[in-house]
Specification:
Distance between the termini: 22 Å
Order of helices and strands: HH
Structural class: mainly alpha
Mean pLDDT: 90
Number of strands: 0
Strand content: under 5%
Number of helices: 2
Length: 78
């Protein structure tokens, strides 16, 4: 029973870290884009550029976290 709870909390932590990393990557990209747009008066170009960069970085983070967890579970199975 304790092992099941530990696995449940580990999975919950992994999913939470994926969500937080996606949201933070997008938020940082949007903030940076809006700041550059205000500074250079180029609305909305940098906003869209850094929005897409933030989305790509968020999905890359999910890919890295999932790959790390898959490798870790494969090592535990052997």
């Amino acid at each position: 029973m304790v092992g099941n709870n530990r696995q449940l909390f580990r999975s919950l932590a992994m999913v939470s870290s994926m969500g937080i990393s996606v949201v933070l990557a997008i938020a940082i990209g949007v903030w940076f884009g809006l700041t550059l747009d205000r500074w250079l008066d180029t609305k909305p170009w940098f906003f869209y550029i850094f929005l897409f960069i933030g989305i790509a970085a968020g999905f890359k983070n999910v890919y890295v976290i999932a790959g790390r967890e898959i490798r870790k579970s494969d090592d535990n199975d052997q």
